[in-house]
């Protein structure tokens, strides 16, 4: 089982929109996403799950187009920034080889949780940072971090 966890690209600054969920990618953010999408070419991705926030949706769509990925993006509430990693893990029990597009602090906390369990500091992931974790099955605290790549 492999999981790819992608933090959205650089977005408009906080305060630029009435709601955080409405912040869009900047041109630099779009460029970051397209750069990191190349790392996913040839990977056996079966689905793309994304936060409903605009910047995550834009990130997921850019990756989908870059990969020529046919299935629609699966928009899920459990990938928003402040979701607990255990709630995400519950959703991943029956999936494999998926790309998750989300935000910090969730991205860093989730990667730490999957590798070490609860109570460890989050992984540091920049905008458009892409992590790959793997194990024979989803076991909290025992997933292997294969890489974290930044654009």
From TrEMBL:
Organism, scientific name: Pseudomonas mandelii
InterPro entries the UniProt entry points to: His_Pase_superF_clade-1, His_PPase_superfam, SixA
Protein name: Phosphohistidine phosphatase, SixA
């Amino acid at each position: 089982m492999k999981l790819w966890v992608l933090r959205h690209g650089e977005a408009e600054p906080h305060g630029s929109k009435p709601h955080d969920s409405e912040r869009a990618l900047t041109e630099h953010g779009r460029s970051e996403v397209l750069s990191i999408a190349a790392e996913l070419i040839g990977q056996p991705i079966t689905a793309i799950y994304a936060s409903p926030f605009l910047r995550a949706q834009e990130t997921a769509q850019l990756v989908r187009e870059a990969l020529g990925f046919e299935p629609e993006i699966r928009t899920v509430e459990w990938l928003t920034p402040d979701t607990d990693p255990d709630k995400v893990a519950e959703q991943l029990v029956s999936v494999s080889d998926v790309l998750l597009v989300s935000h910090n602090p969730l991205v860093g906390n989730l990667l730490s949780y999957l590798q070490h369990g609860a109570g460890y500091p989050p992984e540091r992931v920049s905008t458009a940072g892409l992590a790959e974790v793997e194990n024979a099955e989803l076991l909290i605290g025992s997933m292997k971090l294969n890489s974290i790549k930044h654009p």
